[in-house]
Structure formats: structure tokens, C-alpha cells
């Protein structure tokens, strides 16, 4: 099994002694490997079992904090545990969004659909409070970059731009994972928290954690997180290790 780095293991041991404890994780690129079709992003083997063990521990709250809409996250992951579900980068903290936001999002769909349709392999993902232009499966890389630049240029200033891995998302709310994590932390009265993330939008969450909390970057890339695991199996190994320490 993928090991947990020694410095991170020591931080987990310290974290395990604190309650209430918030264990929060991103989904894509952390609990699921990145794949071409977003709807095919199934969980890594062992991920759900580790989350369930953590959620069963006394004084521990598990939260899933995703750029996906909550319903999509539940359907794609198949997870059914007693977790806090945070979707749309925090815009959906507990439930679905209002119709007014959907109207603004629909206008974006009408604007971008014909543009995306011109690039073979590109996808337009329609989410509760945003649209995402995906280029992971665009073989012509200059065309992929040009599409992302075009989407960026078409976005009016009231939108929030969220670049990510092979994607540019245009959101009709200013929600970010950092504000969502702070709210969650306060709601559970957490004495400590850990957050795992792999993408640009997770940096907001890392920055929101106070000293003593544990921020873990999954995979390569620049980050403000002080800890790192190499990949998705490494993230699952971390969660398993924390569950062992809490047992
Ligand atoms: O916050 P997350 O749970 O990590 O969600 C971030 C975005 O994940 C999805 O896109 C990413 O994963 C796809 C499936 O592996 C991949 O095809 C794509 O290139 C990645 O950007 C999801 O589709 C987005 O809605 C999420 O915002």
C-alpha cells in the first residue's frame, strides 16, 4: 500500500487526539482518479470504506467539498454515508440552489454551447451554479488552449472564473471552498480540521485553515499546503491511516 510520509504521519497522530475533528476532502483527483468523462469518475477502491470508518469515529465529521453539484457528486461517487455535502465550490452547502441562479447559468449555456461544439473532444458541463468548459479529451492542444481563452474572453465581469485541471469554469456565484470550509468548521465547532485537495480551487481551502490544522495537496503542482501525498492511492492511504489512529 502507498505509504504516508513521516512528517504527515506525525501530523495525523497529533490531529487524532483532537475533537471535534473535521475531516474534509475534495472528490475529483483525490478520492477518484481523473478521467476523460466527468460522469465516469468512480471512487478509488477503498475510498468509501475509509470515509465510513472516519465518519463512525466519535466526535468526527466527514465533509465532501466539491466543485461538482451535490446531486452529481452523490450520483457519480455512489457514496451514501452520513457526511456533510458541499457542492458547487461551496455555493451548495446544504441543498440545491435557487431558480434565479439557474436562469443566469442557462444564459451562459446558450452563449458557450455553440463555441464548445466547434472543438472536437470538448465538453460543456452544466452545473447548478456554473458551466465548465472541459478540454481533457481535445487532441488538438492548441485548439484546447484557444477554446479556454475564448471562453475566458466571453465571460462577463460578474462571473467568477475558476480555472482547474483541463477545465475553465464560469460561475454565477462567488462561492469558494475556503469560505465553505470556514463555515463548516464553525458549525461543527471543530478543534481541528484536515483538508485534502488536488486542484487550483482547493488552494482557497488550504489558505482558510488556521495553524494546527492539516492541509494536504494530492499530486504535483504548486501549493500553499505544507503536506503532500503523491496521488489518489496516497490520499486513500492517508484516510485509512487516520481512521486507524482514531480507532
Ligand atoms: O472539486 P472537485 O471534487 O475536485 O471537482 C472539480 C471538478 O472535477 C471534475 O472535473 C475534473 O475531473 C474530471 C473527471 O475526472 C476530469 O475529466 C476533468 O478534466 C477535471 O477538471 C468535474 O467535472 C467538475 O465539475 C469539477 O468542478
Automatic annotation (TrEMBL):
Spell out the reaction equation it catalyses.
Answer: alpha,alpha-trehalose 6-phosphate + H2O = alpha,alpha-trehalose + phosphate
Top EC group: hydrolase
The organism's lineage is: Bacteria, Bacillati, Actinomycetota, Actinomycetes, Geodermatophilales
Keyword flag Hydrolase: yes
Which InterPro entries is this protein grouped with?
Answer: HAD-like_sf, HAD_sf, OTSB-like, Trehalose_PPase
Q: Give UniProt keywords alphabetically.
A: Hydrolase, Magnesium, Metal-binding
Q: Which domain of life is it from?
A: Bacteria
Q: What does this protein do?
A: Removes the phosphate from trehalose 6-phosphate to produce free trehalose.
Positions in coiled-coil regions: none
Q: In which pathway does it act?
A: Glycan biosynthesis; trehalose biosynthesis
The similarity comment for this entry is: Belongs to the trehalose phosphatase family.
Provide the E.C. number(s) assigned to this enzyme.
3.1.3.12
According to its UniProt record, which cofactors does this protein need?
Mg(2+)
This chain's protein is named Trehalose 6-phosphate phosphatase
